[in-house]
């Protein structure tokens, strides 16, 4: 393991410069595209769909950025460290879902030539079902965006002490500004930069950690340690809802959750910006390929954490307050002789948040305009009115994140509610789309009743589980951890605040 009884640097000036530079580049890309396309941005199709002539690579990377967040990047590694590799088997339903989505669902959306995917629900069923899907998406997005801000803001707070509200306000200002000015193209191209940054930050941190460990236990020792610590295991076949991960929850739940990842406005809107269905399929498989690469790198990161702290768990040693602080602690530990590494890592977390949030804002603007203002307007909206509506939605929704994030700071409840609501609504809305596509005899009333029934049932199950966890009635035991190898006295100057970062999903 890496010796934790050494002096580790805090967030240095070099780290700060790198982080600020990443944010400036993101903002600069948005401003550039806003200026370069200032004439065409006045049209709805350009602002929301990039003129429907986007290229495969940027769209594929943007799709990836819209489905990844700092929560996911950090959560997978912590999951591997605490509970083992069972969760990694969700990779298989992910691939199956991607294959089915590309084969059966994408061609339907593309042939309809729509902006809001919920328009399909009105064409297939009726307006009530369309509103059910649209409202579910808007509520989920509104609740989820503050969490996207909270995680990187808290990470920076833990290593520098920077006020969370100041950080989140700056992030909101940046993402709202470049989304308003540059529209869809700005969002996509900043996603490209931010995806490269995310991917690069993960690789740099893993390489640095691997090099340090290889000098002590060898590269193969990392995997041997994971095996010896009982982290490699297959999902159990037991049918028990109190088990953290079973074959059934990973398979069935994974298909449903991954189905919603593909079949949601954020992703579909990007697919529909491409000029041909052939390019849509290429972009889809590009995003899936990169996603799988990052996913397995994150799993390896969990093995790296385990090898680093194999006989000295930082929480048990009192070095951190919660295991969710493990990754920032690890990064600062290995960056003691490599200034800038911590800045790259935190910058990657910031970019993950910005890319996901800008995607949500742009998609929410499309849904509000297409599903609410246009159908309710008695006369055709002027282009000027559409521009005000689209940009107004971006500004209002962005600003609304700040007070909601303040609530998240006081309590973990909003995170639990958001994660629960995401699972609840994803199943209901995805189920309605599946009914519409594969069961032609189902009418609107049946679909709506089924969606509401699914919402109520899954809501009861999900929130009951969260209540049981909060009350301590449902506890998921971690794999064996130890602090027997910790030194009696620590000489370490890693600066981590006591606020806990909740990334577990």
TrEMBL record:
<dbReference type="InterPro" id="IPR018212">
    <property type="entry name" value="Na/solute_symporter_CS"/>
</dbReference>
<feature type="transmembrane region" description="Helical">
    <location>
        <begin position="131"/>
        <end position="151"/>
    </location>
</feature>
<dbReference type="GO" id="GO:0015075">
    <property type="term" value="F:monoatomic ion transmembrane transporter activity"/>
</dbReference>
<keyword id="KW-1003">Cell membrane</keyword>
<feature type="transmembrane region" description="Helical">
    <location>
        <begin position="88"/>
        <end position="110"/>
    </location>
</feature>
<feature type="transmembrane region" description="Helical">
    <location>
        <begin position="428"/>
        <end position="457"/>
    </location>
</feature>
<dbReference type="InterPro" id="IPR038377">
    <property type="entry name" value="Na/Glc_symporter_sf"/>
</dbReference>
<keyword id="KW-0325">Glycoprotein</keyword>
<keyword id="KW-0915">Sodium</keyword>
<dbReference type="GO" id="GO:0098660">
    <property type="term" value="P:inorganic ion transmembrane transport"/>
</dbReference>
<dbReference type="InterPro" id="IPR051163">
    <property type="entry name" value="Sodium:Solute_Symporter_SSF"/>
</dbReference>
<keyword id="KW-0739">Sodium transport</keyword>
<feature type="transmembrane region" description="Helical">
    <location>
        <begin position="163"/>
        <end position="181"/>
    </location>
</feature>
<keyword id="KW-0472">Membrane</keyword>
<feature type="transmembrane region" description="Helical">
    <location>
        <begin position="284"/>
        <end position="309"/>
    </location>
</feature>
<dbReference type="InterPro" id="IPR001734">
    <property type="entry name" value="Na/solute_symporter"/>
</dbReference>
<feature type="transmembrane region" description="Helical">
    <location>
        <begin position="188"/>
        <end position="207"/>
    </location>
</feature>
<feature type="transmembrane region" description="Helical">
    <location>
        <begin position="388"/>
        <end position="408"/>
    </location>
</feature>
<dbReference type="GO" id="GO:0005886">
    <property type="term" value="C:plasma membrane"/>
</dbReference>
<keyword id="KW-0813">Transport</keyword>
<feature type="transmembrane region" description="Helical">
    <location>
        <begin position="245"/>
        <end position="263"/>
    </location>
</feature>
<protein>
    <submittedName>
        <fullName>Putative sodium-coupled monocarboxylate transporter 1</fullName>
    </submittedName>
</protein>
<feature type="transmembrane region" description="Helical">
    <location>
        <begin position="16"/>
        <end position="35"/>
    </location>
</feature>
<feature type="transmembrane region" description="Helical">
    <location>
        <begin position="56"/>
        <end position="76"/>
    </location>
</feature>
<dbReference type="GO" id="GO:0006814">
    <property type="term" value="P:sodium ion transport"/>
</dbReference>
<keyword id="KW-0406">Ion transport</keyword>
<keyword id="KW-0812">Transmembrane</keyword>
<feature type="transmembrane region" description="Helical">
    <location>
        <begin position="329"/>
        <end position="354"/>
    </location>
</feature>
<keyword id="KW-1133">Transmembrane helix</keyword>
<comment type="similarity">
    <text>Belongs to the sodium:solute symporter (SSF) (TC 2.A.21) family.</text>
</comment>
<dbReference type="Pfam" id="PF00474">
    <property type="entry name" value="SSF"/>
</dbReference>
<dbReference type="GO" id="GO:0015293">
    <property type="term" value="F:symporter activity"/>
</dbReference>
């Amino acid at each position: 393991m890496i010796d934790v009884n050494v002096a580790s640097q805090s967030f240095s000036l070099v780290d700060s410069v790198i982080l600020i530079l990443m944010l400036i580049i993101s903002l600069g890309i948005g401003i550039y595209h806003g200026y370069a396309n200032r004439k065409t941005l006045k049209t709805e199709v350009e602002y929301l769909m990039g003129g429907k002539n986007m290229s495969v690579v940027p769209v594929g990377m943007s799709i990836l950025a819209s489905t990844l967040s700092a929560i996911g990047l950090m959560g997978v590694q912590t999951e591997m460290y605490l509970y083992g590799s069972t969760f990694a088997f969700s990779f298989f339903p992910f691939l199956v879902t991607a294959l089915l989505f590309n084969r059966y669902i994408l061609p339907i959306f593309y042939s309809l030539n729509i902006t809001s995917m919920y328009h399909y629900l009105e064409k297939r069923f009726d307006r009530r079902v369309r509103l059910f899907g649209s409202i579910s998406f808007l509520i989920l997005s509104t609740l989820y965006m503050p969490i996207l801000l909270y995680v990187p803001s808290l990470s920076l707070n833990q290593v520098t002490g920077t006020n969370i509200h100041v950080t989140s306000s700056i992030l909101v200002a940046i993402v709202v500004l470049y989304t308003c000015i540059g529209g869809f193209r700005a969002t996509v191209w900043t996603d490209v930069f931010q995806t490269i940054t995310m991917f690069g930050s993960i690789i740099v941190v893993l390489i640095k950690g691997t090099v340090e460990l290889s000098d002590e236990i060898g590269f193969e020792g990392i995997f041997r340690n994971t095996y010896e610590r009982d982290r490699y295991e297959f999902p159990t076949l037991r049918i028990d809802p109190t088990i953290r991960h079973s074959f059934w929850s990973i398979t069935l739940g994974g298909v449903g959750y991954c189905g919603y990842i593909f079949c949601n406005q954020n992703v579909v809107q990007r697919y529909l910006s491409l000029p041909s269905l052939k390019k849509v399929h290429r972009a889809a498989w590009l995003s899936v390929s990169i996603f799988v690469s990052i996913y397995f790198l994150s799993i390896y990161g969990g093995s790296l954490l385990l090898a680093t702290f194999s006989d000295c768990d930082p929480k048990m040693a009192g070095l951190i307050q919660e295991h969710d602080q493990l990754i920032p602690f690890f990064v600062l530990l290995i960056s003691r002789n490599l200034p800038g590494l911590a800045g790259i890592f935190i910058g990657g977390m910031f970019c993950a948040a910005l890319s996901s949030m800008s995607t949500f804002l742009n998609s929410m603007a499309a849904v509000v305009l297409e599903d609410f203002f246009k159908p309710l307007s008695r006369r055709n909206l002027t282009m000027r009115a559409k521009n005000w509506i689209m940009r107004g939605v971006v500004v209002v929704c962005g600003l609304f994140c700040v007070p909601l994030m303040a609530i998240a700071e006081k309590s973990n409840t909003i995170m639990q509610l958001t994660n629960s609501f995401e699972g609840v609504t994803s199943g209901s809305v995805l189920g309605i789309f599946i009914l519409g596509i594969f069961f032609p005899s189902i009418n609107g009333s049946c679909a709506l009743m089924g969606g509401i029934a699914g919402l109520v049932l899954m809501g009861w199950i999900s929130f009951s589980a969260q209540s049981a966890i909060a009350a301590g009635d449902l506890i998921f035991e971690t794999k064996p951890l130890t602090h027997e190898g910790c030194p009696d006295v620590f000489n370490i100057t890693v600066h981590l605040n006591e606020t806990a970062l909740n990334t577990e999903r």
